[in-house]
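Example (one chain per record):
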Amino acid sequence: MTALKVTLDAPLGRFVEDQVASGAYPDAAAVVRAGLAALRTEAARTERFKALVREGAQDIEAGRFETVEDTGVWFDQIEAELDEAAGAR
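Predicted structure:
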């Protein structure tokens, strides 16, 4: 395990201390680990989003798209498909 020394500004330091005092985390290191895990998850989600945007742009350039007249109906259809897929699990 790598040991690092980190200096936090006052508001972040108080936040860490408050998290430990609340009992949500056993110590400051656990707060920092949780924050880094959340950052890693968010970075992965951002990369996935960017990849999907690139894929969508490529589809548009290749002519693979459909025109949607009523976005409300379109979103309702997507939601129904997701609900159906979730029910099948």
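Caption: The chain has a mean pLDDT of 96.
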